[in-house]
Design a protein that fits this description.
Layout (H helix, E strand, L loop, with lengths): L17 E7 L5 E9 L7 E5 L2 E4 L9
Antiparallel strand pairs: 1-2, 2-3, 3-4
């Protein structure tokens, strides 16, 4: 199920929406939709692509960069 903007509902909590995040690679090229995170702060579900591997559920925190 999705909201009226097309974002999918989080399947873990069924409260938040999964929002796409983009980033930049080592060479400066943009990486669209590198991660998807739940909009509900109480949930914290996320799914990411790191070096070609899909990971999910890792703790989210602020980067030191």
């Amino acid at each position: 199920m999705a909201d009226d903007r097309g974002f999918p509902r989080c399947l873990k909590c069924d409260v938040g929406l999964l929002l796409p995040l983009s980033d930049y690679g080592r060479g400066g090229a943009s990486i669209r939709y590198k991660a998807w995170v739940c909009s509900s702060p109480d949930c914290g579900f996320n799914i990411r692509i790191d070096n070609g591997e899909i990971t999910f559920g890792r703790a989210i925190g602020q980067s030191a960069k």
